[in-house]
Design a protein that fits this description.
VCBS repeat-containing protein, 3 helices
């Protein structure tokens, strides 16, 4: 019996001895994963849009720069790291917020002042979010519309993301917003359209 086990044992040792160490494969996989995560993270954390945000008739670019931290509670949101929107024109001040910036949008000229307004979702730790619209007035960004919503009502699952804000026809100084309200009948929120005055 010993004579049969010895060749098997030798083959086993030789076969296992020629294998590449597992840690090299693991390191390569980790390195590849980190590179992929970095690429994916950049595409989600930095939106870019263009428009005439200061009314000079020239196209500027706006870039969202979100803090890459993942928040699990509201205590973690107030970590002192601001998220901001910066511009290709250095004379346009940045928009800063403590919440994550998502879905950067050029809303066009909503208030008729000759500048494009900029909209984005402010997200903390919930699927309930605010969609904020800002306008540059005398060199300072001013919030002109705030829409409370839930991402189930605007998430572009099918490739169709609704306009959360649009100009109200025949009503100067107003916009139509897609927002949510509590529905006692269904005991859940429902999407509604409302006309609201621009601040």
């Amino acid at each position: 019996m010993k004579n049969y086990l010895l060749p098997i044992f030798v083959l086993l040792i030789v076969g296992c001895g020629n294998r590449n160490p597992a840690n090299i494969v693991v390191e390569n996989r980790i390195r590849q994963t980190e590179q992929t995560d970095s690429i994916i993270g950049d595409s989600y954390e930095r939106d870019t849009i263009q428009g005439d945000f200061n009314g000079d008739g020239k196209i500027e670019y706006a870039y969202s720069e979100s803090n890459p931290a993942e928040y699990y509670s509201l205590d973690e949101v107030d970590d002192g790291k601001l998220n901001n929107i910066t511009f290709s024109n250095p004379t346009i001040p940045a928009i800063e917020t403590e919440f994550q910036i998502e879905r950067l949008t050029n809303e066009g000229d909503l208030n008729g002042d000759g500048t494009d307004e900029i909209g984005f979702i402010e997200r903390a730790v919930s699927r309930f979010v605010f969609y904020k619209v800002y306008s540059l007035r005398k060199g300072v960004w001013k919030e002109i519309v705030s829409v409370y919503t839930h991402d189930a009502f605007f998430d572009p699952i099918n490739g169709d993301a609704p306009d959360l804000v649009r100009i109200a026809p025949n009503k100067t100084g107003y916009v139509i917003v897609q927002t949510i309200e509590w529905d006692d009948e269904t005991e859940w929120h429902k999407g509604v359209e409302k006309s609201v005055k621009i601040k």
